[in-house]
Amino acid sequence: MNRTFTLLLALLLGVGMSFGATKSASKTFVGEISDSMCGLKHMMPGGAKACTDECVKAGAKYVLADQAAKKVYGLSDQEKPKQFSGGKVKVTGTLSGDTIQVTSITAAQ
After folding, report:
1. Could you give the 3-state DSSP secondary structure of residue 73?
2. What is the Cα–Cα distance from 49 to 20, expressed in whole angstroms?
3. CA angle, 97 as apex, 50 and 69 as ends, to 5°?
4. Residue 18 CB partners (closer than 8 Å, separation 6+)
5. pLDDT tens, residue by residue, 8-52
6. Cβ(53)–Cβ(83) below 8 Å
7. Which residue ranges form the domains of the chain, and what is each CATH number?
8. Beta bridge partners of 28
9. Distance of alpha carbon 85 from alpha carbon 52, whole angstroms
10. Helix (H, G, I), strand (E, B), or coil: what is residue 91?
């Protein structure tokens, strides 16, 4: 009976820890709202905003371009980034693969 109880307790602790390990903590990422075609470097003349707007009109998705880390993150929310197109922002959310599950986006200095 004692052995069965110990085994059951170990199993429940293992399952509980695996659920806790899969849940990501919210984090803040800083970068520029860019587009999936250009990523870290805009190719069109007219500046970051004009380039991002044109690429999104052509079918690209909004992304967060982190120049410091040389990394481009997909954004789960494609509505919030519109008002920050080409601008520096802070994106709060959880990272799932290379995509940020967006909680909020605010302007950054």
Report:
1. strand
2. 40
3. 55
4. none
5. 555 566 655 555 444 569 999 999 999 999 999 998 888 999 999
6. no
7. 24-107 (2.40.50)
8. 92
9. 6
10. strand
